[in-house]
């Protein structure tokens, strides 16, 4: 189970990286696109980072409890 969570963690980290890059692009592009997308993308980044932290906690908890 921990192996699946680790793969899921890497996927979420990849999504965080992509969303961060898109958010920075929207921020620097500016104009109407920047106003409508930069805040939405940064909120999505925070959500995916929260999911990544939860996965790290779950992996550590499973490894310490001997479940993996």
Structure commentary:
This protein is mainly alpha-helical and 68 residues long. 93% of the residues lie in helices and 0% in strands. The chain is built from two helices and no strands. The protein has helices spanning 2-29, 31-65. Helix 1 runs antiparallel to helix 2 (31-65). The longest helix has 35 residues, at 31-65. It starts with a helix and ends with a helix. The mean pLDDT is 89.
Helix content, binned percent: over 70%
Largest sheet: none
Termini separation: 6 Å
Strand content: under 5%
Instruction: From the alpha carbons, calculate the radius of gyration and give it in angstroms.
Output: 16 Å
Could you state the order of secondary-structure elements as H and E?
A: HH
Q: Which secondary-structure class do the elements indicate?
A: mainly alpha
Shape: elongated
Tell me how many strands there are: 0
Question: Taking all residues together, what is the mean pLDDT?
Answer: 89
Low-confidence residue ranges: none
Number of helical segments with 4 or more residues: 2
Supply the key terms.
2 helices; mainly alpha; 68 residues
What is the fold's blueprint, element by element?
Elements: H1 2-29, H2 31-65
């Amino acid at each position: 189970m921990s192996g699946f969570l680790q793969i899921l963690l890497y996927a979420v980290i990849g999504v965080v990286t992509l969303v961060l890059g898109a958010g920075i692009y929207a921020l620097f592009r500016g104009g109407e696109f920047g106003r409508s997308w930069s805040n939405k993308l940064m909120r999505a980044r925070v959500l995916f980072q929260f999911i990544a932290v939860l996965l790290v906690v779950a992996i550590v908890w499973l490894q310490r409890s001997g479940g993996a």
